[in-house]
Amino acid sequence: MHLNSLRTTNDLLVQYGTDDNLSARQRLHDRYSVTPTPWFSWVFARLLENLPPRAAILELGAGNGQLWRANAPFLPVEWIVTLSDLSSGMIDAARTGLADLTTGGAPFAFHLVDAQDLPFPDASFDAVVANHMLYHVADRAQTIREIARVLRPGGIFFAATNGRKHLREFHEPELVSILYPEPSAEDPAEMDPSWFSLETGGAELEAVFPHVALQVFEDSPNALQVTSIPDLVAYHGSYVDLSREQEAAVARYYAAKKADRAAIEISKSVGMFIARITPAV
């Protein structure tokens, strides 16, 4: 099943019951990105640019908390961050990964939540962060309304997502036929126009937030230079329960692609919407 097709609670909990799959995907980007600025650093910089030194922040779909772990040295001392996720396994991973940062000051809180029905009072937060998670939500319009509800006057919603050409090399028909051999299996080669993407997300947000700006992450044209075929097999295995035959076929596919080249080149298309009820000052 493709990442962006995960819309039911059961699908999400199968994929994200623990942080194993997410960590496998993060490793590919961490090891092989040739972009000077890491993604989590870029996201955090957007928060620093737009939020005051004292702020209450909610992250939806926080996963294993890597956004905060990667930027721990730069975390303002008066930021209070609530990490939330639909998966208790992800909450456990985030709590464990950030344990050494919570001793003494306890800047992090952890909550198991459904983003479509947030268990927080109105006007609870100065900012809400959704980093590559809105395309998982079944009722995005309701979720966006809930986000607006829990924001304080002047609050900001940061919504990061992918563009239509993100990792397009992973959707080549030959590779898709290996990963999804059954005729009835969902073919992820084409992005469903209903997904929350860089091309479509702005209109959805503008239904609730009158002021929406898009900032595109300026990646290089070939943002990943992957030298390890086993790491590529592991990446695909984080989405699909590959048989040994499929693993071998994926490895042969990439071996043919790599041939005499030093690396497999993978492109990216990512960015962030910054949405406000009131205009930026």
Question: Can you describe this structure?
Answer:
The protein has helices at residues 9-16, 20-32, 39-50, 66-70, 88-97, 99-102, 140-150, 173-179, 201-206, 229-237, 244-258, and strands spanning 54-60, 78-85, 108-112, 125-131, 151-162, 211-216, 224-226, 264-266, 270-276. By secondary structure, it is α/β, with parallel strands linked by helices. Strands 3-2-1-4-5-9-6 form a 7-stranded mixed beta sheet. It has a two-stranded antiparallel ribbon with strand order 7-8. The model is unreliable at 1-10 and 12-17 (pLDDT under 50).
Q: With helices defined by DSSP (H or I, 4 residues minimum), what is the helix count?
A: 11
**Shape type:** globular
Largest sheet: 7 strands, mixed
Distance between the termini: 43 Å
**Helix/strand structural class:** alpha/beta
The residue-averaged pLDDT reads 86
Unreliable segments (pLDDT under 50, ≥5 consecutive)?
A: 1-10, 12-17
Strand order of the largest sheet: 3-2-1-4-5-9-6
Oligomer: single chain
Give the structure's gist in a few sentences.
This protein has about 280 residues and is an alpha/beta fold. It has helices at about 10-15, 20-30, 40-50, 65-70, 90-95, 100, 140-150, 175-180, 200-205, 230-235, 245-260, and strands spanning about 55-60, 80-85, 110, 125-130, 150-160, 210-215, 225, 265, 270-275. The strands form two sheets. A seven-stranded mixed β-sheet has the order 3-2-1-4-5-9-6. The protein has a two-stranded antiparallel ribbon with strand order 7-8.
Task: Please render the helix and strand layout as text.
Layout: H1 9-16, H2 20-32, H3 39-50, E1 54-60, H4 66-70, E2 78-85, H5 88-97, H6 99-102, E3 108-112, E4 125-131, H7 140-150, E5 151-162, H8 173-179, H9 201-206, E6 211-216, E7 224-226, H10 229-237, H11 244-258, E8 264-266, E9 270-276
Parallel strand pairs: 1-2, 1-4, 2-3, 4-5
Antiparallel strand pairs: 5-9, 6-9, 7-8
